[in-house]
User: What shape does this take?
Amino acid sequence: MIGTNVGGIPEIIDDGVNGYLVESENPEQIAEKVIKLFSEEKLLKELGRNARKKAEEFSIEKHVDNLEKIYEEVMKKYKLQNLSID
Assistant: This one.
């Protein structure tokens, strides 16, 4: 996986672990990383395995679970604030 170091992409790609981050609008850097990956099969497979593990962190089920936890915390704080106001 190769992506630019902008927006939310750095949250997904851990440089050198599950892919490579490159500077935006730098075709030489992109070409360098592509050549590296295709010339080093072992590295390509390792980064691929790591990318798969990272992708599994982003399942819809985990996202919904995280949202539910956030909502529960907000509701607890809201209830506590309302109790202390009365």
Observations:
- The mean pLDDT is 92.
- The chain has one domain: 2-85.
- The first strand starts at residue 2 and ends at 4.
